[in-house]
Structures are given as structure tokens and as C-alpha cells.
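Researcher: For the record, we're logging two predictions in this thread. I'll number them. Prediction 1 follows.
Model: Prediction 1, sequence and structure:
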Amino acid sequence: MELRHLKYFVTVAEDLSFSRAAVRLYISQPALSRQIKNLEDELGVVLFLRQSDGLALTEAGKFFREQAKDILDRSHVAVQTIKAHYTNTDEPLIIGYIPTILQTFLGQTLKRFGHTYPEVAVRLHEMPPAEQIRALRDSTIDIAFMGNPPNEIEQEFTVKCVRKVPICAVLPDTHPLAHESSINLAELASEKFIGMSEETFPGRNDRIRGVCRDADFTPNLHLFADSHASMIALVAAGQGVAIMPNEAQALPHPQVVFIKIHHPIHYARSTAVWRKEKPTKSLDKYLKILFEYIQD
């Protein structure tokens, strides 16, 4: 049993709904259900009654909820006390990111950060959004950069929109529309679409459906990629079309073209996400650079 399992349980106990808790935790609902079932198996008790109108805590679940909350609170206080009173030097700045962001503002702010604070080491970890959220909870990264996180995570983390970028259509370079300067997304209504894995990019397929819905069609999502690179590769292989933020063009994309969408016009949010607690000295210094970039 790990602290994250207690966090999962407490969140479900607060919402009494796997679906609502999964959105807040930024993990898929099946994965969350399995974690709770594994926890019940490890404890040898039933924590939730699964009823037709939702979940209800058992007596054991009510007791465990209070104990789990106490453990989480005490672990948080212990970590913050150590950082506040026993750390005398700048710790490394540890960043989780998706690759589309590294090529744009993240690279620019890190260059400025390096010039201003050369004494602070920076560690970069490419990871999908779901893994970034887990790493934030486990305090293995200081800040995460991702696209379009659900609003619900703002209950747990500070979320700052750094920039908005237009959504583009991604087509094989042999597609009949590949040479157009812009398209109406409805022109792709009959195409097969590439989506994203719910395990690594929870909620991304709902956004794809929402964009297509504004073009008056429901996309045929038939394959699901676990990364931006694999999504581009599937499009290049003729397995379907996709929609992605314009900044994804910074990634290698042979045999693929990015086409502007003039209707409907949608933007993706590139965001920074960090814990609400007092930031480390290194993160505090980086946030000053990041806020200067946003104001510019």
C-alpha cells in the first residue's frame, strides 16, 4: 500500500462516484476501480457498497477514511517541515512535460532560467499527463507542463494557462485535402480518427469529440495512440486522421501535414501545474521567470 492508494480511496470516499473521482485524480475510471478493488483485497474488507444509485461507505470504509485522511495530512506536514527547516541549498528543479511543449515556451523559459540562475540544476522528464499528475502527487517532480487538463484538478493543484494554440487537422500527405491552406473540419466527417489512450491522456478523447461536435459530426475513433509521436505515425501510415495542437508541428512528422481549421476554431491550452503548497526555492525562482514570460 502506498500513499497514492490512500489518496485514491479518500477522493472516491469524498465523491462517492468512481467517474467523478477519476476526473479529479486524472486517471481512467477502470484504473481507479481496479486500485480500489486491490486495496479492498489487501485489507480483506469491503470499503464501498456498489449500489444502483451510486457508492456508499461501509462501516469499515468510514473508519478507514478518517485514518487515511490523517495519514495523508501528517505526511504532508512532515514533508513541508523538512523542506522549510532542514533544506539549506537549492534543490534541483524537476520538470515533467509533454514533448510538444518543450519545443516552444518551455525551452525559451529554461534558457532564460539558466542565464538568471546558473547555480540551479534542471532535470527534465518527458511523460504523459496521467504520469505527470501521479509524479506531482508523489513529489517526484516540481512542476508539470501539459495540454488541456480538466478543470477538476484545480481543486488539488495550481493550474496556470501559459499560452493558447490553435487546433489543426493532421492528415497524410497523400490525402485529397493535404494541399489546402485551411479546411472546415466537417470535411473529415467520414474519415476514421486517431484518438489518445485514456490510460496516458485521460479526457483527451472527450475533447476530440467536443471539437468535432461543433462541426456537427461524431468522430469515428477507431485507434488510440499512447503518445503524440505514435499518433503522428498512425496518420502517416494511413490509419486515419487526427486533430492536434498546432505546436505539435515541432515534432518530426514525415509524410504528414498540419492543416489549419477555419471552422470550428478551437484552441488548446498549454498549462503549468504545480502543488498548492509553498514551492521549493528552485521552483519559486522558475515561476518568476515563467510569469515574466506570460506577461511579455
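Researcher: Logged. Prediction 2.
Model: Prediction 2, sequence and structure:
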Amino acid sequence: MTPNDGTGRTEMREPGNAPPAGNGLLAVLMLATFIVVFDTAAVVIPLPAILEDLGGTLDMATWAYGAFVLVFAVFLLPSARLGDRYGRRPVFLAGMALFTLASLACALAPSIAFLTVARGVEGLGAAMAEPAAFAMVNTAFSGKAKQRAAGAHRGAFAFAALSAPILSGLITWGLSWEFVFSLNVLAGAAVIVAGIRLVPDTRDDNGPRSLDVPGVLLGGLGVFALAFAVIEGTRLGWSSPPIVAFIVAAVVLLGLFVLNERRADAPLVDRGLLASRRFTAGNLARGLGEFASLGLFFALSHLLQVQLGHSALVAGALLMTIIAGAVIVAPVSESLTGKTDVRLLVIPGFLLIAAGTFWITLSSSHPGWLFFLAPLAIAGAGFGLQEDPTAATALHDVPPRRSISGRNISYVVYLLGITAGVAVVSGVWQSRFVANAKDALGEAGLPPAARDLSADLSSGGVSGDPAANITGPGADRLREIVHTAFTDAVGTALLSCVAVAVLGALVAVLLSPAKDDRSDSSTADGTTSD
């Protein structure tokens, strides 16, 4: 997960008056954003420990992570619309209460299915709280205080994304995975108690008054159907009636969603913003970047811990190499954004992501931890190089009065990119592992346990560690076969991230600056980017 909240350095504004705000309110909004973003990024690291404790298969782990992000994405825009109409204070506080209670349920989860449902409720709470927090930063402050608040809010987002791998790894290693969610409970309770006293009620009296319910239903169900087909294709069979039905349903529902948005009086997605080539291409590139980022984190977290035997702390520390690469390069990228053609930053950035990720796919079946440092740093440098200019360019043409709407759409694309990355990497990973393992386990001379293992993989899905319970004669050979098949499958899955990164470089060609602002470093609201 890359440490940019989707605003680039564009300062958002919304018409309307709001009461003066102070440091207390800013602290509440920063903490709310921190725990939401932390939860989005952190749960990847403890997933292997969760599977070990609660049981389940890789597709279940994918749902345990993806339920949060998917629900978050689907309900963010309608929640923002409700806040604009009925007041952001009640939507924000209700969202934080829901998020906090769901986090407590996650910490107490007795099964992977229970955890997945609780994660979905967490996502709904996040969808209510996060857009309201962002809108209040831009309406409850004014002048220099607003600039300071916007910068601090972006800082909270970035710090959460930067610290999530190592902090969640430390908590899982030193305590247990439940305490990752307990942190949300403590922070959420603090936000609610302070927010009741400090959060003002702001709204947008000039925005749309109706909620696009058909758009919410069509879009949400369409995205869910597509995610289900990708994640469960291996377990149920890609040509099985359920998977075919879900693919057809996804195509039909998403097609109807597009038609609905083109005809609705108050569409969920602002059609005027999509008319901007840079807004559309910039957000598409941003989504592709998040696909590659979370796909990489998701696959490597499991590989490092389950197959290579590292602790959650070591896995988090190794994945921090990506963050380190991004942090080193990001200041250079930020200083050049607005001063040069962004394609000179974004295209090389995506190509570095592709190169670093491809390097990882060339590893042996038993790579040492030192092997990962260089390719992860290269990929991280790519993320740092493309992230800020992509986000800033996407919002460059957004008028000030529509800046909150533009940022919310960008946030949804960001979340959908995460969802797609985890779902596709998981689907390819499972599919290739089952195929590789069945081929290898079908060789002559293997003990009878090989046939049983092959049958289990075909019918029950891929468990967290498929070789964990292998015993008896030939067990070591079977474990090596499974390990090699699993590692090779991870490499194949990561090729999807490579392909998406290359696609991101191609999309970046559309980010060419307009003729009238090639030398203009101002942002959408007229402030300079320096």
C-alpha cells in the first residue's frame, strides 16, 4: 500500500461556512484516518497467523482481507452523499462506532467466516467515517489553518501506510494477531469520546439531494460478483456453473451500472469529472499502482512466513524495504511534480515496479531473506516515483467546488485497485499451485499420501500450509514437492503484478500536461505546489 491519500498536493475546498476549528478536532480526524488506513494495510501481515489459529484456506484468507476493502469501496460514495445531505458529524460518529465495534468482533472472532463478516462491517464503518473526516478537514478550517490541517491529515494517512507492515508484524509476533484489531478498538473509542465534544456538523447544501440507490446496488453487486468469480474460481472450477454465472452477472450488472450513471439525475459518480482525460487516466494509473502494491504485499507476506519460515516481524521488516525505497525516492518525485512532464516520472516508476517484481519471480524455491532486499527496494522506488505525480495529475483539473467529490472518486478507485490486486493474485496463485502440485504429485513412485493430498487440493482448496500435516514414509519428498509448487505459483501470480505495472506505464502516456500549463506548477485551487 503506497503512502498517498489520493490528493497529491492539491488543496481541496468546498463552498460554505463552518465554525472555527482547532487542534483538538484536527487530532480526532487524524487519528480516525490513521486507524482506517492502518487497518487497510496492516491485516496482510497477520493473515498467515489468522489462518493457523482459525483454520481455513487461501480463498477464505482472501475474503477475510478483501471483505473490508470491497465494502469500503462500494459504500464510500453513498456515505459521502449522506454526510453532505444530513450532516457529517452523525455519519462520522456512527461510522467510527461501527468500525470500533466491528474491530472488537474481529479480535474475538471464533472462526474465519465470523472474521470475514466482521471485516465487512468494519469496511462499512470506514466508508462512513473516512469521507466525512476528509470533508471536515476541508470545511471546518480556513486560511493557513486549513493548509496546516490538510497537510497534517495527509501525514496521518501516509504514516499509517508506512508503519502498517512493521507495526502489525511486531504486534503479531510479540503478542498475537488479535491485538492488531484491539489497537483499532482503543483508538476508535478515543476518537468517539473526543469526537462527541469536538466534531462540528458541516454539510453541503449545494450538493445533490437524492441518493443513487440503483447505482449503489448495481455497482456493489457487480464488483462483488466479479471478485467472487476470481477468488473462488480455483476451488469451484473455472468452468463450473456457479463461476460462469457470477462472471455473466458481473458483466451484466457493471454494464447496467454504467448505463445508470449516464442517465441518472444525481449519479453516484460525477460524470463531469470523468470527461477530463487526466482525471480518468490518472485515477486508472493510481488503481493499477495499488493493484501491484497490495498484490505484492499479499503474496510475499504468506510466502515469507508460511513457506520460508520467517516470523511476522521479519516478514513485516522485509516488506518495509518497499516502503524504504518509496520514502527515499518520493521527495525527488514530489519536488519535480508540476515542474516537468509527469510522464517522465510515472512511466519509469511503473517500469521499476515491473522490474523489481519480475526479479522476485526469478527466485529459487528456497531464497534467503537477503535475496528480497534489492528487488523490493527497486519496486519501492518505482512506487515512490509514480505515486505523487499520478495522484496530483489526476486531480489537477478538478474545480475547487468539486474537489471533495473528485477526491472521493479517487479514493474508491484506489480501494478497487487494492481489491483487484489481492483477488487476482490470490486466484492465479491458487490455480497455478493446484495445477503444479497435481502434476508433481501424479509422478510414479510417490507414497499413497500423494494421491490423498492431490485429492484434498482439488476438493478443499489451498490451506495456509498444505504440507503441514504430511507424515509417514516419503513425507520429506512430498513436502518439498508442495513447497516448490507453492513457490512457483507465487511467482506466476506475481507476473500479474508485472503485467499490470507495464499497463500502468502505458496508461501514463495519457497523463501529458495540457498545453496551457506545461510550465504551471499551481494546483487546482490556485495555490502553488511548493
